Amino acid sequence: MTALGRVVFLNPYLNMKRTIKILTLTVAVGCATAPPAHDTAAQIQSAASLEKAIVFHTEALPVEAAGAADSLRLSAAVERALRQSTEVQIALAEVRAAQAAAHQSRLLPNPILDIAFRFPEGGGRTVIEAGLTADLTQLLQRPRRISAADARLRAASAKAVATVLDVMHATQREYFDAVGLRREVAILTEQNNRIGELLKVAEARLAAGEGTQLDVTTLKAERATGAIDLREGTLKLTQANLALAHRLGQPRGRTDWQLATPLYTEVALRGEPDSIAHGLRVRPEIQADRWQLTALEDATALARLAWMENNAAGLAAERGSDWSLGPSVALPLPLFDWGQARRANARAQAIAARHRLTQTTRQVVREIRHSPRRRGRADDHRPPRAN
User: Fold this and answer.
1) What is the CA radius of gyration of the chain?
2) Contacts within 8 Å (CB) and 24+ apart, 36-39
3) Dihedral of CA 58/149/283/351: which sign?
4) CB atoms near residue 261 (< 10 Å)
5) CB-CB neighbours of 17 under 10 Å
6) Are 192 and 223 spatial neighbours (Cβ–Cβ below 8 Å)?
């Protein structure tokens, strides 16, 4: 429930009809609109190709989630990473906060009841002054405040989708790092075993007088080099497995899953100009920056009325021997602060947002040009393209 402008309620017996009209208008104005319907969960579900939406948890996620299955496909790893991601939960919480701010922007300020009692020195009836007031500037700024809050809500929703895509990309990279390093370690192990077998043959030939010491020395050097390469590859594989386990929400859990999804083969799916044009239309990072710029432009417009804050306009009543009623106005005198600093700050933030939008757009184009478009096997989950 909110109040419209600054209104003073006087003498309930004489102004009952007027009061009812004011309260009716207050309810109509204060509750007229609702924030835009913005189903972030559905957008995330569509972007991530999930069968069920990601649940927003009001309690903290467990430090150690339940263990994954023995065989882990990429699609299952991505879904598990999204559902165990603290980054996604934080982004969803920020969307909730933006929704609350959008609701708050539609509420008018609560009225303030002022009552003063004055006792005449010579006796007589007590003088009563009463007023019911609310800030008029809040009413004048209400459309812009609503617009800014709605833009921040859309920006928070777009950032949540961008966070989901970032988590998906990181999971895919860590998954395939582990797949590639497992293959590399297997190849290095087989290579070292073969070198060991060749070394035994060379040593036997040398003992029989058919080989040379140079052959034995060369194979020993290759075996030492292979052992170093194998040790480094094993260390990298351990780090990759730990990174993937952390991504899956089980930092202390197992790392010996069977990674069932093979590496993808790169093929170009569309031309570069089309990829860039499509990316500039749909990338959530750009959408978030655009909505953030809209919100800051609204904040710049709101700063124009900054000097009018703490105003008062309405009716005032006083009872001495009789009740008296009249309008009252209280406006700040902009002698020292006429909102110049706040306007300059709002303009600077809007300018920074414009440059940030350009920066994000350039970064998106760079990522699209640098990222390969991939296609996997037909029976497997395909990671979304960067564009």
Assistant:
1) 35
2) 36/102, 36/150, 36/153, 36/154, 38/95, 38/99, 38/153, 38/154, 38/157
3) negative
4) 21
5) 8
6) yes
Alpha carbon distance, N-terminus to C-terminus of the chain: 46
Q: Given this model, what pLDDT does residue 382 score?
A: 40
- The pair of structure tokens assigned to 149 is 């809050």
Q: Which amino acid is at 230?
A: L
Residues 376, 381, 383, 387, CA torsion sign: positive
For residues 20 and 16, what is the distance between their CA atoms, to the nearest angstrom? 6
pTM: 0.72
Q: What are phi and psi of 345, to 5 degrees?
A: -65, -45
Tokens coding 203: 């040593």
- CB-count exposure of residue 133 (10 Å: 0-12, 13-18, 19+): buried
Confidence of residue 316 (pLDDT cuts 50, 70, 90): confident
Tokens standing for residue 286: 């750009």
Nearest to 4 by CA among 315, 363, 214: 315
pLDDT averaged over the chain? 79
Domains of the chain: 16-375 (1.20.1600.10)
- Residue 162: its H or E element: helix 136-207
DSSP state of 288: H
Report d(CA 368, CA 279) in Å as an integer.
8
Paired tokens of 379: 């029976």
Amino acid present at 217: T
Which amino acid, 29?
Answer: V
pLDDT digits (tens, 9 = 90+) for 362-387: 988 888 888 765 444 433 444 444 33
Rounded CA separation 384/155 (Å): 22
- Interior angle at CA 62, CA 56 and CA 63, nearest 5: 130
For residue range 145-199, list pLDDT tens digits in order: 899 999 999 999 999 999 999 999 999 999 999 999 999 999 999 999 999 999 9
* H or E, element range at 68: none
Which phi and psi angles does 200 have, rounded to 5°? -60, -40
Q: Are strands 374-375 and 265-266 parallel, antiparallel or unpaired?
A: antiparallel
H helices present in 208-329, as ranges? 213-247, 272-282, 284-302
Nearest to 177 by CA among 252, 245, 250, 269: 245
